[in-house]
Amino acid sequence: MANVEPRRVLTPTEEEARASAAAKVRRETLLAAEQTRDHVKLTWTGLRREARDRFDVSTFRRGQLELLEAVFQGRDAFGVLPTGAGKSLCFQLPSLFLPKPTIVVSPLIALMQDQRDHMIDAAVEVTKLDSTLGARAEEAARDGIARGQSKLIYVTPERLERPEYLELLAKQGASLFVVDEAHCVSQWGHDFRPAYLALRHAVKALGRPPILALTATATPEITDDVIAQLAMEDPVIVHAGVARENLAFGVLRTPNDDEKRLRLMELVRRDLREGDGVTIVYVATIQAAEDLTEWMKAGGVACDRYHGKLPIRTREDVQNRFMNDGLRVIVATSAFGLGIDKPDVRHVIHYNFPESLERYYQEAGRAGRDGKPARATLLYKLEDRRIQSSFLGGKYPRREDWVRVYAALATSPVAKVGRLTLEALMEMSDVAERRAKVIVAELEAAGFVSRKGVNIRMRTGSHEAAFERAVK
């Protein structure tokens, strides 16, 4: 018998290198071929060239390659990438090659404006649709979309609830439908927005383009919920991890308010003395933002506050000074959040802990986006939990809300023929818009009701027993 050379067992490093090489060949073969779905022909070399020339990106980060591959295959994809890891590139770069517009649903106008400005700098045709547009700007935006001028169209989820905007976008079609900050889709997500629950209907109205959902924070439960709510089909799931090697986390126990203020002042003064970046101090309430700002100013710290109750011009002024290095310390509620992409934030301090671990990671992750060492510090006081418990108590529908909405649907003649609007349902049930949207979405998912455009229809049959089990 001939001697057979025993097969050498590869080390983990060699296995990883072989797998990486095979994946590279597979991607090159895939992207060099004709993509019959959207008639796209390109190579990774071409992608890298555009990334370098337009976005100053020389190397793709972990998770980006897999998501780009899924997009060009026409697959649905769900990406969880750390804060500052380049989620936006996963749809901005493909938009240059796809034949139809890429529609991006974004939760905040400030975030949309920031990304729009970056795209203009990169010489990419871009349009946004939101409530800040005046009549002339709105007309120009709609005209540009109708003539197919834009590669990227940013839109708030609330705009997609309106039939006239869906009709406008549907005429041009879409090669890709992007849900940015996708955790907002889930009612368990820390930035839940009921308007996101209608996105599955928007996708259908647009001809069902591939869906790309992106977020920095999503538990397995939230991931499953987002996939279900968007009706994603066999999505590629890419989880690039949450580790940020340059970001150091710390917790300081502060048994009372006097101790907490003392430690805060020590941290801020050290930041100002030793560093050249900026510091964000997050608080749970508007009153805390006002009080702490005045107290720190009295202590000789130049700072300002930011919260949702300030006039819009004041908020813009504070944000612009912060972004342009005219303000090194800002005290803010969570309203100062998405869209704040400043690379030299050296320290994020939480004076109160936020409502969830996901929100904490999102806010803390605004530090160190330039890759340099940064810190995130939580000033912990047990009694602070009561603040968040109070907020959460009013955020989601109560059992009596469900009962009133269901009763209104069951007794409404127009609901039985599919002509009941959300506004009419809110008036009949005396339930606020946010909670009514949540309840209708859940009833739809459970098969109690169906929706067509703005109209709601109660399905035939007896649902009382099933409804009772559902709300217990």
Write the layout of secondary structure elements.
Elements: H1 12-32, H2 44-55, H3 64-73, E1 77-80, H4 89-95, E2 102-105, H5 109-121, E3 126-129, H6 135-146, E4 152-155, H7 163-172, E5 176-179, H8 199-205, E6 211-215, H9 220-229, E7 236-239, E8 247-253, H10 257-274, E9 278-282, H11 286-298, E10 304-306, H12 312-323, E11 329-332, E12 345-350, H13 357-364, E13 374-380, H14 385-393, H15 399-411, H16 413-416, E14 420-421, H17 422-429, H18 433-445, E15 449-452, E16 455-458, H19 464-471
Parallel strand pairs: 1-6, 1-7, 2-4, 2-5, 3-4, 5-6, 8-13, 9-11, 9-12, 10-11, 12-13
Antiparallel strand pairs: 14-16, 15-16
Helix pairs in contact: 3-4, 15-17
Structure summary:
The chain is 44% helix and 15% strand. The chain has helices spanning 12-32, 44-55, 64-73, 89-95, 109-121, 135-146, 163-172, 199-205, 220-229, 257-274, 286-298, 312-323, 357-364, 385-393, 399-411, 413-416, 422-429, 433-445, 464-471; strands at residues 77-80, 102-105, 126-129, 152-155, 176-179, 211-215, 236-239, 247-253, 278-282, 304-306, 329-332, 345-350, 374-380, 420-421, 449-452, 455-458.
Task: Fill in the keyword field for this structure.
single chain, 472 residues, alpha/beta, seven-stranded parallel β-sheet, six-stranded parallel β-sheet, 19 helices
